[in-house]
Amino acid sequence: MNDALATDGRDIAVTVDSVSKRFRLANERRTSLKELFVRGRSSYHDFWALRDVDLQVERGTTYGLIGHNGSGKSTLLKLMAGIHRPTSGSVEHAGRVSALLELGAGFHPELSGRDNIYLNGSILGMPKKKIDEAFDRILEFAGLGDFIDSPVKVYSSGMYARLGFSIAVHLDPEILIVDEILAVGDEDFQRRCFDYLAELRSRGVTIIFVSHSLALVQTMCDRVAWLDHGRLVAEGPAIEVVDAYVRDVNKRESTRLERTHTVTPDAGLDTSNRKGTGEIEVLGLDVIAGDDGGMAVTGEELTLRVRFRAHSPVENPVFALAFYPEHGQKVAGPNSVSMDLGVLEGDGHVDYHLDRLPLQHGHWKVSIGVTDSTYTHIYDHLDRTASLTVQTGRGPAQGGDVVLPGTWRLSTVADATLEETR
Predict the structure, then answer these.
(1) Cα–Cα distance list, 266 to 184, 200, 367 (Å)
(2) Over the stretch 306-347, which tens digit does the pLDDT of each residue have?
(3) Going by DSSP bridges, is the β-strand pair 362-371/97-100 parallel, antiparallel, or unpaired?
(4) Above pLDDT 90, what percent of the chain?
(5) Which residues, listed in sequence order, are joined to residue 282 by a DSSP beta bridge?
(6) Contacts for 8 with CB less than 8 Å, ≥ 6 apart
(7) How far apart are CA 326 and CA 409, in angstroms?
(8) pLDDT of 93 over the 50 cut
(9) According to its UniProt record, which protein family does this protein belong to (predicted)?
(10) Bridge partners of 346?
């Protein structure tokens, strides 16, 4: 492997130079000798998984690959790991590569876990002495116990994942390449994996990985490459590239959905949970979003418009909304009690506006209600009749169902001491 050093003085671990990868796919597969003689040989067509990809990964950084399924992420990882060869272009490394790409890849099913540790270490070019030194750490992290001397063909998918990851990270990798394989393990195993990846990063190991968890990519990665149908769309700082990718995904989704989403109870929707005396009737809920193609986006501007019909004059009613995650309890219930609406009669609408939508991405149910100012007389109430799809916002994601609008402030002992001396 050639040592790759960038011309601008940056220390480069992996260089991908004008790489394209072509696969030849059969148009119609012959499944028997008879079909081969009757129909002749199968015809083929070329599928280009990657086209003219250029990127550099600096030594000691964590690098992410994002994109939709089939965008070429896993193919690029395999080229970086040396599993595939590019059809054109070149991939150069500066360091020993360890890869964890597919469940059980590199394992011999008839050999025990112990034998596979030594087999994988030898494939990575590790002398037996170093494997001996790392063996106890590998075994402890994998947590296989007595199964270490059983053939790996009897292992569960979780055991495969634990052993594969433990081997990959404990045999002194200089460049670690990881696919979505970590999704196989349980919660405890995943947390230990991420803790160990953080330790490897602090030791200067270059980490390259694919993940569909954009929050994880933004949290762990220094830089990110976004692939789409085999081509490099963008490359740069993690937060900027992920934000651009999210905007693109949101816009694509908006083309499949109407710009304004209307829920009308009398248009065939389930109204079994409707109750009220009917002086005011809720006609529907319109979702009016901002700049992201008319879609509700976490952290962006949003207006919810309640359309109504007052069949008789009603003085100062209270309109209310309630928000429910797809599987959970109510998280918010704003109402118009602080606003004097006067006397309503005929058709109209009431808008509830948010400068920054606090709901996290996902599918939400919305209840709509109208009562008198004492909340005791219900004119109309539709329980979880409306649906609201919220798309991922920009910037690092946060946990939970809602984003709280608070701010963080730091005070130190030194600050307090300085204040006392004044």
Answers:
(1) 45, 59, 16
(2) 999 999 999 999 999 999 987 778 999 999 999 999 999 999
(3) unpaired
(4) 33
(5) 308
(6) none
(7) 34
(8) yes
(9) Belongs to the ABC transporter superfamily.
(10) 310
CA 163 to chain centre: 25
β-pairing, 231-237 vs 343-354, is unpaired
- Going edge to edge, which strands form the sheet with 302-315? 261-263, 280-289, 302-315, 343-354
Delineate the domains of the chain, giving CATH numbers in brackets.
12-252 (3.40.50.300), 261-391 (2.70.50.60)
312 phi, psi to nearest 5 deg: -145, 160
> Per the structure block, which two tokens stand in for 163?
């052993």
* 344: its two tokens: 């309503």
Structure tokens at 287: 């979702």
Question: Are residues 77 and 86 in contact, defined by beta-carbon separation less than 8 angstroms?
Answer: no
Contact (Cβ atoms closer than 8 angstroms) between residue 367 and residue 322? yes
Measuring CA to CA, which residue among 200, 165, 237 is closest to residue 95?
Answer: 200
pTM reported for the whole predicted model: 0.65
| DSSP H or E stretch at residue 21 | strand 12-26
Q: What is the dihedral of CA 121, 122, 124, 128, to 10 degrees?
A: 60
| Residue 418 vs residues 11, 184, 227, 410, 414: alpha-carbon distances, Å | 42, 52, 51, 15, 6
Look up residue 96 and give its two tokens.
Answer: 């020993």
Can you give the pLDDT at residue 232? Answer: 95
Residue with tokens 């590019």: 86
Please choose, from the candidates 278, 364, 267, 373, the residue with its C-alpha nearest in 3D space to the C-alpha of residue 324: 364
